[in-house]
Amino acid sequence: MNRNPFEKLMWSIALPGFGQYLNGKYFKGTVLLILEFLINVQANFNQVILLSFHGEIGDAIKHAEYQWLMFYPCLYFFSMWDAVKDAGGGKDPYSFLPYVFAAFFVTVGLIFSSNLMILGVLLGPVWLPILFVFPGIIIGFITREIIKNIP
């Protein structure tokens, strides 16, 4: 079996559960795939993405079911971390931190996505959470390094 953690990460980014399938974790992959489908449908996520890509942010906000959409970041980043871990990556005991902080920051971005404007532009439930991924990952890596270097 191919144990390339980067490949498993990329497949998990494509769709939660695919990295687990490639790792031979079929039950876990199926559960994650079903959860992704359930959350996606209940949150109207595909419609929200389509509207956001067309620049119709107001309509995207109206169509988003935030109670369901709030589950997506944790599912998404857990799937990525788990696939990488099972493929032999992330041997560091704190390798989960960038994923946790990214999920947290994306969730915070989602919470404020209906009213936070950046440079006078309302980014909505797709673009603002995507922007919040980057500080989450950076802070996660910094926190991991700080914790690893505590004597």
UniProtKB/TrEMBL annotation:
Keyword hit for Transmembrane helix: yes
Keyword annotations: Membrane, Transmembrane, Transmembrane helix
Transmembrane segments: 96-120, 126-147
Superkingdom of this protein's organism: Bacteria
Entry protein name: DUF5683 domain-containing protein
Natural source organism: Bacillus salipaludis
